[in-house]
Specification:
Keywords: Oxidoreductase. By secondary structure, the chain is an alpha/beta fold. It has 7 helices and 7 strands, in the order E-H-E-H-E-H-E-H-E-H-E-H-H-E. The protein is globular and about 45 Å long. It binds nicotinamide-adenine-dinucleotide.
Amino acid sequence: MTAAAPARITGRTALLTAAASGIGEATAHRLAAEGARVVVTDADAEGAHRVAEEIRAGGGQARDHRLDVTSPDEWAAAVEETASWTGHLDVLHLNAGRNLPGAAHELDDASWHGQLRLALDSVFFGVRATVPLLTAARGAVVITSSVHAAIGFKGFPAYAAAKGGISALVRQLAVEYGGRIRFNAVVPGAVDTALWAHVSPEYRAETIARTPAGRLGTPEDIAAAVALLASDDASFITGHNLLVDGGRSISSHE
Ligand SMILES: NC(=O)c1ccc[n+]([C@@H]2O[C@H](COP(=O)([O-])OP(=O)(O)OC[C@H]3O[C@@H](n4cnc5c(N)ncnc54)[C@H](O)[C@@H]3O)[C@@H](O)[C@H]2O)c1
C-alpha cells in the first residue's frame, strides 16, 4: 500500500484523533505514506506511540501525543505541540466515536451524554482549537461519521444522534469557513475493526449479506477516502458526507 499510495499530501502536517487503532491507525499510515508529517493522537498514549514508531520505522515522519478528545485542555496542548513541531497544521482527521447499545427508554443520562461528548462535542472542541492554524494553511478537515447518520439501527439512539449531528455540522462548518477551510465527512458502513470483535458470527454474516459489495469494509478502505478528501484532488469538495459503505445504506436488503 505504501508504495502504491500517491504523494498528494507531501510537506503537510496532519493531526489525527483516535489513531491508535482501526480506522484512525490506518489513516495515520495512509497520510504518512502520502508524504504528510503526522501527529498521531489517542487517549491511549501507548497505542499512539506504537503507531508513530511504526510510521517512523517505515520511513515516514510522525509524532505522538496523548489526546482525550473530550478535554479542551488536552486539545490546546496537542495543537501547541503540533505548531511547535512543524509550524503549521494542514489536515485534521476527527475520528473518535463509540456505539454503546441501548434503546432510548433504557439509556441512562451518562451513556447518552458520554456518546455525544465523545463523537460530537469533540468535533466542536477540535475545530475550535485548530481554526487559526487551519485558516493560515487553507486546510482540510475530515470527520468520521457512520451510516447510523443515514439509516436507523435498533438500539443505538445516542450514536445516531451524534453521527447525524456530524452530518449537519460538516455542512455548517463548510459554509462558515468557506474559502479558508474545507470540511467533509466520511460515512463508513461496517468496518472490520476492534468495534466488531465482539459481534456474533450470525450478525457479521447478516451484515455482509446486506452489503452489495459482499464484504465488511477494511480500515484501509476508509483511510483511502480520508486521504482523498484531505488532498487537493478534493479541492472543490466541501460540506460533503461521503458514503464509504459498500452500498449498505442504499440496498433494499433483499
Ligand atoms: N468499525 C466500524 O464498523 C465503524 C463504522 C462506522 C463508523 N465508525 C467510526 O469510526 C471511528 C473509529 O472507529 P474504529 O472502528 O476504528 O474504532 P477502534 O475501536 O478500532 O478505535 C477506537 C480508538 O478510539 C480511541 N479512543 C477512545 N476514547 C477516546 C477519547 N476520549 N479520546 C481519544 N481517543 C479515544 C481508542 O483508544 C481507540 O484507539 C469511530 O468514530 C466510529 O464511530 C466505525
